Every structure is written in C-alpha cells, then in structure tokens.
Amino acid sequence: MSNSPKFVIDGLKATIENKEILKGINLEIKGGEVHAIMGPNGTGKSTLASAIMGHPKYEVTEGTATLNGVDLLEMEVDERARAGVFLAMQYPSEITGVTNADFLRSAINAKREEGDEISLIKFIRKMEGKMGELEMNPEFMHRYLNEGFSGGEKKRNEILQMAMLDPSVVILDEVDSGLDIDALKIVADGVNNMRSEERGFLIITHYQRLLDYITPDFVHVMMQGRIVKSGGPELAERLESEGYDWIKEELGIEDETVGQEEEEFKMPMNTVAPEFK
Ligand SMILES: Nc1ncnc2c1ncn2[C@@H]1O[C@H](COP(=O)(O)OP(=O)(O)OP(=O)(O)O)[C@@H](O)[C@H]1O
Ligand SMILES: [Mg+2]
C-alpha cells in the first residue's frame, strides 16, 4: 500500500468574529506535490492555515478539509497534528518554561503509541542531526521555545520541528520572512530534503525568491478569501515582475482584501470630502 497522502480542502468557509474571511476554498494536494499560495496582504492566507489547524478564533461555517478521506475539521487540534498535519506559523509563539527539546520530544511521543515512546538517546541523536543540517547552534536545544529567538531563528526552528515530526501535510506560512540569504537557502534545503511522495506541501509566501529554491508544482493566488487564479511556477514569476494589478483587472476586483467588498457604501476614488471643497 502506498503511503502517499491526499489532502483535500473542499468549499471551506470560515469566519472570525462573525466576519466571513474564507469564502469557499478548494484545493487538492497529493503526496509529492508542492503548492504555493501567494496573494496580497489581508486576503485570507494565514486564516486558511489557522482554520485547517483549528485555531479557536476561527469558526469554520462550511466545507471540509480531509486527509486521506478523514475530516480534520471534526478533530481536536492535537488530533490534527497527530494525524500528520504540520503548520509553521507566520508568528510562532514563545513558550517560557518549555525547552525546545522538551517540546519536540512530547510532540513526537504524542504521535506514538504508549509504551513505544522514542528513547532519550535516539531523540537527542535525531535532534542533533537535524540541527546540524539546519546549521543551528546546539544551545537552541535547551532554550525555551522561541523565547528571545530572533525572527530568523524562529523560522529555522519551525523547519527543525517539521523535520523532526515527519508530517504528511506541511503548511508553511511565510517561513521565508525575515531570513537572511544564507538562512533562506538552509530553510529551502530543509524543505527540499523533506520532499517525497509521502508528503505534500502548502507554502504561503510573498516572494518568488523562496520559490527559486523550492520549485512549486502549482501556484495559487488568493484574493477576497478565495483562490482566484492557479497556474504553474511561471505564475509566481509573472507576479514578481508585474504585481497583482493584472489579475485584479482580469477578474474585475477592486479591493482584494477580505471583508471590504460587501460594504454598502464605498467612497469613490478621487472624491473629496464636502468640507474640503
Ligand atoms: N483575530 C482577528 N480579528 C479580526 N480580524 C482578523 C483576525 N484575524 C484575521 N483577521 C482579518 O482577516 C483578514 C485576513 O487575514 P489573514 O491574516 O488571513 O491575511 P493574510 O492573507 O495572511 O495577510 P498577510 O499577507 O498580511 O499575512 C484581514 O483583514 C485580517 O485583519
Ligand atoms: Mg498571513
């Protein structure tokens, strides 16, 4: 039997504080595939990642997100991680009092049966090996999770977690933001080393430069809480050189952010408020 996963998002809608942010997302990611999601600020990309992972602030109102036919949205948050979904967040949280090693060891053991926990020595060897590949200072093993980590150190640490947890679906939200050029290559190598038929990737990014190192199979553009355009790597290249205006023109979109387009009144462009006339 093949271990190749199939992750399907179907008609996903989600609200935050009663405001609809995701307006029907459809996406299918198979093992071995890398999908990139791009899109202007405030169009729902991080919301999509959070909704899949079960962030309590987001309420899914319609649709499903299934991994190998099982609906993740019916699961508790920790079950989703155990089922093999991993999210590297745009803004990883700091957890004082829990070391990086403690955190990862518990996360690995949570995925294993009772009595089959990873031995301390095996765990340390694995963590040291992965930290070496990511050129991380060994002291990060015993630092509190993300506490005082620089922006780039946090991102590298997210990739360490991914490498340690061996997930089937990997969602990376702006894992390239704030990385220096060398770190960007290291992170990209970390992802490329993990590419296999046993894993699918969803990479949210603003920049072609990450995709220069991690060649995506599909590129999707998100606007107004929907995927409005999909293509291959050439789509990301066109966005890099031309921006988003051509897509907005093509689709007749004026404001690409979510939650604005349904407002009853819109101030027309070039309108001057009466008192300034
Ligand atoms: N907790 C929240 N409370 C209120 N509004 C929210 C909340 N979370 C998200 N939103 C709104 O939902 C919209 C989409 O946000 P989201 O973070 O998904 O955008 P994004 O596409 O990831 O943008 P960026 O590229 O800037 O990271 C934004 O208008 C944002 O302000
Ligand atoms: Mg975001």
TrEMBL record:
Q: Which domain of life is it from?
A: Bacteria
- Chain intervals for the UniProt region annotation (Disordered): 258-277
Q: Which residues form the signal peptide?
A: none
Q: Which residues form the ABC transporter domain?
A: 7-249
Q: Does the keyword Nucleotide-binding apply?
A: yes
Q: Which UniProt keywords apply?
A: ATP-binding, Nucleotide-binding
InterPro entries xref list: AAA+_ATPase, ABC_transporter-like_ATP-bd, ABC_transporter-like_CS, FeS-cluster_ATPase_SufC, P-loop_NTPase
Q: Which Gene3D superfamilies match?
A: P-loop containing nucleotide triphosphate hydrolases
Keyword Nucleotide-binding tagged: yes
Report the GO molecular function annotations: ATP binding; ATP hydrolysis activity
Which CDD domains does the record associate with it? ABC_FeS_Assembly
SUPFAM superfamilies, from UniProt? P-loop containing nucleoside triphosphate hydrolases
Instruction: Report the sequence similarity comment from the record.
Output: Belongs to the ABC transporter superfamily. Ycf16 family.
State the name under which the record lists this protein.
Fe-S cluster assembly ATPase SufC
Organism field = Chengkuizengella marina
- Report the gene name: sufC
